[in-house]
Amino acid sequence: MTTINVFTENIYPNWNVNEKDIAEKTKILLKHFINELGEASCLCGYIYKSITLDIVFCDSCKTHELNRDYRDKDKPADIITFAIFADDENRFIFDEDINLGEIVIALDKVMEMVNKDVSLAKNREQELYFLISHGLMHLLGFDHRDEAEYNFVITEQRKALECINYEQI
Fold first, then answer.
1. Which of 3, 66, 115, 131 has the fewest CB atoms within 10 Å, counting from its CB?
2. Is the overall model pTM greater than 0.90, yes or no?
3. What's the pLDDT tens digit per position in 22-36?
4. Which candidate, 107, 17, 100, places its Cα nearest to that of 54?
């Protein structure tokens, strides 16, 4: 039985996200991805007892800074994923724990997206979980460089989101 550790930090003052609920739902999403996609993920072939990841909630000024400093993109992002395990050729496991990396989400961008595009028919919590599931896919080594990869990622996200009663959030 794999233990999943999700650590959260909210440094955005204008949305008091329920970090405990987010951590629990993130664990459910990750378990789904591991069960359904494990053989195709960066975890395939590794022996581990626990998986750890971090989620930081901030504003778009912070994601702009991270984008500029680490990705050479001079613009804010709604989500940035640092896939420590998936992106490193020299993957290491410390004390039988895999650190997948970090998901950084700009909560002001989440609210902006929901308010801007009412055709999405999502509330801000739904958009937040959609982004978290997207970040998890990146942490597991999945990308979307072309339309086929993008469609795969979105399809798998939708399946995983059913596990947390996404439509009822």
1. 115
2. yes
3. 999 999 999 999 999
4. 100
